[in-house]
Structure formats: structure tokens, C-alpha cells
Amino acid sequence: MRISLFVTCMNNVLYPDTGRAVVTVLERLGHQVDFIESQTCCGQMHLNAGYRPEGLSLARKVIDSFEDADVVVVPSGSCTSTMRHLWADVATDELDDGLVRASQEFAPKVFEFTELLVDVLGVTDVGATFERRVTYHPTCHSLRSIHVGDRPLALLRAVRGIDLIALPEFDQCCGFGGLFSLKNPDTSAAMGLDKIANVVATGADVLCASDNSCLTHLSTLAKKSSSLVPGYQSDSVHAQPNFEVKHIAEILASTTAGA
Amino acid sequence: MARTFAGAPDFPVGAKISLANPQLRSNMARATRTIREKRNLRVSELDTWEELRVAGESIKRTALARLHELLSTFEKNVTEAGGHVHWAVDAEHARRIVLEIVQATGTKDVVKIKSMTSVEIDLNSALEDAGITAYETDLAELIVQLGDDLPSHIVVPAIHRNRDEVRDIFKEHMGEWGLKAPDDLSNVPEDLARAARLHLRERFLASQVGISGANFLVAETGSVAIVESEGNGRMCLTLPNTLISLAGIDKVIPRFEDLDVFLQVLPRSATGERMNPYNSIWTGVTKGDGPQNFHVVLIDNGRSSALDDRVGRDALRCIRCAACLNVCPVYERVGGHAYGSVYPGPIGAVLTPQLNHVTSDHVAQSLPYASTLCGACFDACPVRIDIPKLLVHLRGEVVDAKRSFVPTTQEQVGMRAASWIFARSSRLRGVADLGAKSSGVLQGRRISLPGWLSGWSKFRTVPIPSRVSFATWWHKERGVQGESRVSSRRREFRHKNARIEPHALGIRRDIAPDATLNQANARDAILSAIRHANRAQAEQPPISRSYRRAAREETIDIIEHFEERVSDYQATVRLTTSEDLASAVSTALSSRQSTSVVVPSGVPREWLSSFAGTVVTDDSTLDLKSINAVDAVVTGCTAGIAETGTVILNSDSNEGRRVITLIPDHHVVVIRAEQIVPDVPDVIARLDPARPLTWISGPSATSDIELSRVEGVHGPRKLDVIIVRE
Fold it and tell me: Are A52 and A77 contained in the same domain?
């Protein structure tokens, strides 16, 4: 199958390893991946912040760029949600019937990475090995907007050598929320620190998710403010976080013990 | 002077203040967790839950689309049933109407049921200014009033207080308002509830005017429904001779049968109960029973203009259950006061900016951003309000209201720069490469971002761009494809950068406040604004009643089911035959040490033939003092609901005036097996909406202190149900 990668602007600039991991997994499964170089951003930031025309012009650009694509894979729950729901909602709000239709026609070919693997390609064992203790945080958009359910967990369970620990209060938001993290830094940090405390409680050394945005919030928060997490330093001298964050694609791409 | 939300800081500042209060955070975390678990348990018992949500949404959609017609019908039916309907365009107007009614009675104090609408119009301040004391009777509102505090939750206004704080407030301030609290008052919720019962009992018995909100207004019958737990509601709705019910115009529903959806979803969503202890449903005035002077004040106060917003109008479906507050991770952390508005939490963040106008003040403008859009609120909402979608819409309104040709704020500059960069992949690659070049230099440094971006670096390190972006890597490794391939394609859909219709708030038709407003022109102004807002409303699809299938009926013995559910509420259930009824009644009375009993005139004398104590028959002339002096009341009932453990009284001769089942501390209800139906939808057709209906599910109770349920507040603290099966 020919699969077009929408890598997302954030992964493009900050996390190219996530993009490469998606390519690795899909090629290992025998599929052809293409990367349409005119792609930039799905417009989520502008749309969620209230900048409707700006966000919608980015939506149009994505739809244009991927016009020829049969299947679009997105390594992000929130960007998938944007493409599947938010474009049409905001276009409706802006009375742009043409874009509403174009968004609705485009939506069925967009899949979040774990959805693509499980639903479209029909696999849960992608031939990965990752011998570390891992916990999974279901990001809000993947959980409640696009409803990926236990697909990511099914994929992780099939990874050889993995020690997968359930995250307490997994369905609680991490506090990132895009612009929320800037406009309401105190509340965002309070929520994030509670999430970090739950991650610490699992004893996992890797926290994974389907969204690097939430993971960035948590890892950068842990680096600077970990001293504020209750119990975080109680049994050790760690001033730095003792877990690292990884996009789920990077775990699924791993074939060595996992570095 | 009663406190108000006027002058509150915007959300980020309010949140920061709340976050610095560890007591508040631990109270909120405990309370919201408790209520979430209770709600999930009760919701999971229903296999029709999603169908009920769809029906709830659909009924409210229909009601809003037909609002003009339904309000007129409601008005006509209330008037025909002996009540009075008033129309208030805004808060000031509503206050004036209430004040005139109260002043006409000559009383100097009123008793109130918790009503968010009353807080919305700041009624207590207006009453106070006129020398009239408003006594809040709901336990949580009492805590708020005694503590000179503000409500922080729609259903449990004192959710931010724990039991120690409540005890201290009672001990310190009860005496200023009436009977003082016992000196040795403990922090045990049962004791606190008892203190409230004693404090307010005399007040209820002496009250001349009661003021309530309303949960539902039924257009086709002119009925008003109020759900509550403590019995303070029943007191206020039954004892005073004058009753004023305040209701937003969004509270109307088309049909009496629609209650079978809302009376299932509201209690489960609000307090995590199958049914709250008391529902009162009445229509106009009933001679000899309850207030003889009944007024409904229909309040617009921004609702008709919210209705004129194609997206925002969905917020008017809200039934004020507060389920969205209880699941909101932001609300849980910061509590209700941080929202600086009467309606806090997710629903407040979409209602307040619409009722107060997004452009009006900095608080309203900050509220649509007081959410991470995590979506938990939408999943919990029993009428399926897509709150995240509404928040995004309102953010658009805020942004548009501030737009200018040249960006003036840092946010506007940043957003414009981002759209310029994202407009072409070459620009994004250029920026990424620039970032990549600086990557080595930035690595390991502590970076503080300036201005608007400092919100990020305040608590977090700054992520460093990768040395090679994905696009650059791909370009080098995999060669060119894509960009050129697509750029020649024709774009099939219409491009549009200009906005078609500036549907920002500027074009809203607001009703101008007018000192010369009278009933006639207020009514016309509100109805004409509603008609205008509904000008483009399509015919609503019929409401799906699929939730009415009774799957459990065949497999479950409904009498056993009823017994089990009534017992769940700490009520006692006895199964007997008509032959042994008199001895069952006598046992029920003596087991609770009740030695005197009042009975309505229609109760057969044989029921009490084995009872040795005093029996007083109510011929509808017994005064309150005499009723207050007896230990118990024995009545029949109209129907029972197995699933929810509910008995329903319709105040006929076998059940008596509402007051006699309310004041005595012990209620013995006799129900015949054939009066018991499986579930709420089955009972609606058996009820006569013209009668005053009282639904009773267990003894009076409250969850207002730390959301832990305590039996026994203002209504009867002891309930015995005797099932007669031949």
C-alpha cells in the first residue's frame, strides 16, 4: 500500500526521529511511504486559538497537497482530530460550504498511526523489540476525539521484551492544551505535575504517547519543575526526571533492546 | 451586602490564586473524585444511557427551536391554573419584578431554595437593599451565605469547603442569622446537617414568601419541576403562601412525558444517585394545598442573544447538572471561584461569555481559554453539548473582536508570523534549518522566553530544534517528490480568505434595558428576539424514544427490585398482605418510637387499628404547629418506581396535603404491589400533571458536605415503605 506521511509541523522541526520511526515501521511491514514536501501544518494551533481564517487556509493547503494521496498517516492524535473534525467544524462556523465538503471528503483517508496499523493494515505485532519498562499515556484527542481505544496498548503488548505498566488515572488530561500551556501556565503546570507523579508511581523509565506535544510539555516540565512533584525526590537524589519520553512509533520501530 | 463576582480577576489570575491554596486543592480533588465515581457507577447501571443522552439532546434542541411557541403555551397554562407569569428582559428587570411581589406581601424576610438563576440576577443584594432578608435554606447555600462567600459549583455551591470549615462557619455565624449552633458542634456531617435542620425549622414554619429556581418548565401542562435532596425545597414550595419561581427561558421543555428522560439523567449526572430524594412537580395553584399565590418569572438576560448564535445556542440545552464540572481537570485544580462568574467550569466558560457578551470584559474573554479542550465534559454531558466545539467557537469570537489590520498584541504577531511560515513548506524548512543551526549552541542552556511566550518557560525548559528536520532529512535521503507533483493540480473547492458574514457579536439584537419596561412590552421584546434568533431553524426530527424499551422487566421480579432499591436509601421496607397491614403499620411506627401520628382524611381507619398511640386526622385545617408536634405521618401513594426506589404522592385524599408528609420526622407509606412499575418512563403515563406531585426516594438527605451522603436534613429523616401484596 502506498501511504503518505503527514509528519506534523512539530515532529518535522523538533522530533524527526518520530517521522523516521513511522517510515521504518511501515516499510518493515512492506508498504511504500511517500512524503509530500509541500506539507507544513494542519492549522490546529490557529484553529484552537480562535484564528479561524488563518487556520482554515492551512487546512486548504493540506487538502491541496494530499489530493493524490490514498491513505494519509499522522503520528499525532490531535492533528488527526483536527483534520477529521475541527476543519469541518470551523469551516461550518465560517460558512465555508466548499471547505466543509472538502474536509468531509478528505477525512476518511486520514489515520492516526496506531489506527492505520490496527484498522487498515490489520497488524498488532509489528516485529518490534524494546526491553524497557514503559507506561502509556492516552492523549485526550486520541482517547476522546478520535477514539483510538486500546489499539496503542495492543501494539505495545506485542512488543518483545517490553515491561508495560498501566498508568494510574490514565484518562486525566496532562494539562498541555496547546495555547492553554501559555495562557494558563500555572494550571497547566499543576495538571502536568500530577500526571508526572502518576508516571513516577509506575516506576516506568519510558513514558510513551501518540502525541509529542503532550510529551514535550511533560518532559520539559519534569526537567524544570520536578522538585514540585510530591514524593518525586523522596527516595532518590534525582533532581532530573528519571523517565524519558518517546513517541509510540519510536518504540514500535525499535528492533534492538531499546536505547 | 451580599458578595458578588463583580470585579473578579480574569481566569489565569483567579486560577493562580486558587492554586496557591492547598486546602482548596485537596478539598476539590477529594470531592470531585467522589462524585465522579458515584456518577460512573449509576450511569453504568443503565444500558440505555447513550439513548437517553440522544433523546435529551433532541428534546432540548426541539424546545429551543420552538421556544417562542412553548413559552407562550407555558404562560397560558400557568395562568389558567391560577398562577402568574412575568417576563424579565434582564437581571435588573427580574430583580424589580421579584421585589414588587415580595413588597406587596408586606413581609420582611423570604426563604430561598438554591437557585443559580437567583445568583445570576444578584437577587439577594436587591432584597437586602430593600430591607428584606433572604434566608438561604439549601445546606450548601447556607454555608456560603453564613461564610459571606460565593458559590463555587452549580449543584454543590460549597464544594470548596471541608467539614472542619463548615463546622467553624456554623459555630461562628449561625447566631447572626437566627438560632445559633450548639457550642459542642462536631465536624461530623450528620451533626452539621442536624444543626441546619434546627436552625431553619422555625424559619420555615413562619415563612410568608418562598423563592425558588426551576429545573424544568413543562409547556403543555404549565407545570414546574424542581429536584432536590434535603426537603428544604419542599418546605419553600409548600409552606409559604406566596411562591416566586425564577426560570431562565431556556428551562422550558415541550411535553410532560419528556420528564422521563430528564428525571433519569439529571440525578445520575448531578449527584450520582438513581433518583434524588425529592422531586416536586406542580401546576399553578392547588386550593388548600401549598402557596395560593404563585408567580413564575421568565428571565431572558442574554439568552435570546445566545440563541442567535448558531453554534453558541447549544449551551442553552444545559440542564445545570454540573457533570462537566466534576470531570473537568481544570475545574478540579482551581475550583469555581477562579472562573469569576456565577456559572463556573466548562459550561460556565461557554455560558458566561454568551450571557455577559464575549466582548464585555476581560473575565468573559478569558473564559473560553480556561480549558485544555480535553473533551471529558462532552463525554459526561447528559444532553450532549459539545463544549470543546463551543469553546473553540467563542475563542474565534474573542479573536475577531480584537482583530486589527496591524497586529497589536504579541499573540497576534506570533500567530501572524506562524501563518506566514506555515504558508509555504520552503519557509518552514528555512526556519527549521535556522533552528537546527542554533541547536548546538542552545543545547544544555537554560532559556527563558520573552513576553507572551514566558508562560511556557515559567515552569518548563525550552525544547531545542533537531539538528536536521524531518523534511530536510527526507529531501536528502529520499529525493524530491510531492511538492512539484501537487502544485500543478487544480484546486477543486472554492478558496475563501474573506469572511462571508461577520457573525461576531456586533450584529446581535440585544434587548435594550429600558426603565419604562412593563410586562406587555417585555414579553413582546423577548418573544420577538427569540423569533428573530430562530428565523433559520429547520423542522426538528422526531424524538427517538428507544430508551423506553424495558429489557429488565421480564427477568426481574419488580417487587423485589423495588424492595432492594428502597432499602438502598436506608429506608425500611416491609412486605405484607392487606390482612396484616394494620400490624405492619403499627410495627413500623413503634419501631421508630413514633407515638403520635397524623393521617390524611382518605386513609382507611383500619390501617391504624393496631396502633396504640394518638391519631390525628388532617381535614386540611390543621395548623403547622400541630403538624410539627406529631411524630409521624401515614399515607398511601399513587405509584412506585422499582429501578429508582421511588414512591410518588399526588396529594389526593389518601395522601393528603403536601405539608403533612413533610413536617413530621417519620413517614410511613403504604403501596400496593400493582402500583409499582419497572422504571421512570413507565410511571409518567400514570400521573396527573394537574395534581401537585411529590416523588420521594428515601429519607431527606444531603451530599453538600464533601459530597458524602448524609440521611436526614429538613424533610422526614425516617422513611418506611410497606408493600401490600396479596
Answer: yes
- Domain hosting A239: range is 133-253
- Find the CATH number of the domain harbouring A200: 3.40.50
How many structural domains are present in chain A?
A: 2
Q: Which residue of A has its CA nearest to B419?
A: A54
pTM: 0.94
Contacts across the A-B interface (CB distance below 8 Å)? 254
Interface of A with B in 223-252 (CB under 8 A): 223-225
pLDDT digit string, tens, across residues A26-73 = 999 999 999 999 999 999 999 999 999 999 999 999 999 999 999 999
Q: pLDDT by residue (tens digit) across B595-604?
A: 999 999 999 9
Q: Which residue segments constitute the domains of chain B, with CATH numbers given?
A: 427-474 (no CATH), 558-724 (3.40.50.10420)
Summarised one tens digit per residue, pLDDT across range B468-502 is: 999 999 999 887 654 333 333 333 333 333 333 33
Nearest-Cα distance to chain A for B649, in Å, is 42
What residues of chain A, 79 to 98, have a C-beta less than 8 Å from chain B? 86, 89-90, 93-96, 98
Q: Which position has the higher pLDDT, B263 or B512?
A: B263
Got the DSSP string for chain A?
A: -EEEE---HHHHHT-HHHHHHHHHHHHHTT-EEE--TT----SHHHHHHT-HHHHHHHHHHHHHHTTT-SEEEES-HHHHHIIIIIHHHHHHHTT-HHHHHHHHHHGGGEEEHHHIIIIIS--S----B--SEEEE---HIIIIIS--TTHHHHHHHTSBT-EEEPPTTTTS--S-TTTHHHHSHHHHHHHHHHHHHHHHHHT-SEEEES-HHHHHHHHHHHHHHGGGSTTTTTTS--SS-S-EEEEHHHHHH--SS--
State the ipTM, two decimals: 0.96
